[in-house]
Design a protein that fits this description.
Distance between the termini: 119 Å
CATH architecture: 2-Layer Sandwich
Number of domains: 1
CATH topology: Pantoate--beta-alanine Ligase, Chain: A,domain 2
Strand content: 25-35%
């Protein structure tokens, strides 16, 4: 009788080592994906911030040309400005248009002086000021 009782003994409940390792592997993969996405989000947020500030600077340069009330000569000017605690580099290119009373202003702005692709570029047209 004792042998029959021993055969029907219920094993203790719980997880095996293999089940725990599988669960940890799944959690590790999920956490890796989450960390990757958070890093990508932080990078995109910084890029958006920089592009927005660069666009504000480009608009400021065009506004300065508008309120200057002087007819700009055909030329290319480079400059630096500080905004949001950071140094920014801009280029203003003034070109003629088919209408001799209008000039085209091309403004590019970047946080890197030697960058080939600007963070922001803006095209505006400026009419000759009234005499």
């Amino acid at each position: 009788m004792r042998q029959a009782a021993r055969r029907h003994v219920h094993p203790q409940g719980g997880f095996t080592l293999l089940e725990i390792l599988m669960a940890l592997a799944i959690v590790a993969v999920a956490l890796g994906a989450i960390i990757s996405e958070v890093g990508r989000h932080v990078y995109n947020t910084a890029q958006l911030r920089d592009r927005t500030i660069a666009h504000w600077i480009a608009m400021n340069i065009v506004a300065e040309q508008q309120i200057n009330n002087k007819w700009p000569s055909v030329s290319t000017k480079k400059g630096e400005t500080t905004m949001a605690g950071q140094e920014w580099f801009w280029t203003l290119t003034v070109t003629e248009t088919a209408d001799d009373r209008v000039r085209r202003l091309d403004v590019t702005v970047d946080s890197d002086k030697d960058s080939e692709t600007p963070l922001s570029s803006l095209i505006a047209y400026l009419g000759r000021p009234a005499p």
